[in-house]
Amino acid sequence: xxxxxxxxxxxxxxxxxxxxxxxxxxxxxxxxxxxxxxxxxxxxxxxxxxxxxxxxxxxxxxxxxxxxxxxxxxxxxxxxxxxxxxxxxxxxxxxxxxxxxxxxxxxxxxxxxxxxxxxxxxxxxxxxxxxxxxxxxxxxxxxxxxxxxxxxxxxxxxxxxxxxxxxxxxxxxxxxxxxxxxxxxxxxxxxxxxxxxxxxxxxxxxxxxxxxxxxxxxxxxxxxxxxxxxxxxxxxxxxxxxxxxxxx
Amino acid sequence: xxxxxxxxxxxxxxxxxxxxxxxxxxxxxxxxxxxxxxxxxxxxxxxxxxxxxxxxxxxxxxxxxxxxxxxxxxxxxxxxxxxxxxxxxxxxxxxxxxxxxxxxxxxxxxxxxxxxxxxxxxxxxxxxxxxxxxxxxxxxxxxxxx
Lengths: 248, 146
Description:
The structure holds two protein chains of two kinds.
Chain A: E1 2-13, E2 23-32, H1 37-47, E3 67-70, E4 73-76, E5 90-93, E6 100-102, E7 105-106, H2 109-117, H3 139-143, H4 156-160, H5 162-166, H6 173-183, H7 191-198, H8 202-205, H9 212-216, H10 223-243
Parallel strand pairs in A: 1-5
Antiparallel strand pairs in A: 1-2, 3-4, 3-5, 6-7
Helix pairs in contact in A: 2-6, 6-10
Chain B: H1 18-54, H2 61-66, H3 71-79, H4 82-109, E1 113-114, E2 117-118, H5 121-145
Antiparallel strand pairs in B: 1-2
Helix pairs in contact in B: 1-3, 1-4, 4-5
């Protein structure tokens, strides 16, 4: 289904080797009812301007690569339909709260460091030999963390969070939700190790529960909920440290 | 890496999304509630002043509170002026909004699981928020009005 109309895309352009400041460039693209914003950007890249730089991969809301600001809203561009904006113009910016490398491409370095900081893997005191079989888990135990394991690292939540933009130390919604996901995993024994990172200064306590991270999350992970739960667990851990100071 | 572009800080960030605005309004409610608490503490101080005036063996509580002329009676009369009534109405609205948004957030912050199933948010709000709130309110009302 398409019509002969055109649609305007205003794209944030920034090439560090030539531009001191970013600018917007307008492109007229064919309007196609079943196109998403990513299709339109791909069309620009293929037919009008090969220099437009951006990330994308799966085109089906799984890889988390194509997150951008669409008319000021953090969106997966593969899931943002042109028909929801037509006949108005669509302005595409790189995700806010991240440094811009080039055009719509942001630097993920800080995000990756924060993800790594929460030790997002199962930590065990004892590691069983594989001959002993897997660590078993009941469906009820799985239910405790499954929602938080659905994150695709698209970083939309970092763009929706005002704290991320103002507090460098804050680990941010996705990383904290992932840390909480492993803390809630019945096979994991690394909560206190992880909490040492999460409880330091503003790493987690920076969150003021604005809640917009959960609103924009395309996978319904609810990082805001995860962080509040982690805060409660952290407070318990903190008081426990007075009642039962760590031996050894 | 050099050459990265860092967007400027947005001081008016809270105007950018309706959700941010709701957050700021919720945070602001605490200012009104803090103001109300100051008035409440002053009210308690007036009760204390009343006891001192009434001596070591006060009569009925009504005598202590409303015997005239009396700091507490004067205070209550002052509180009944339109300005103070309006201020209390604003504080009450702020407190109710704070409570409602708090109960709205409870299911997110404190999930209850029954086996594999998570208690649906509306049920959790009643069990952990509105239910206890109404119960406590009813008990206080019963105690005051009996």
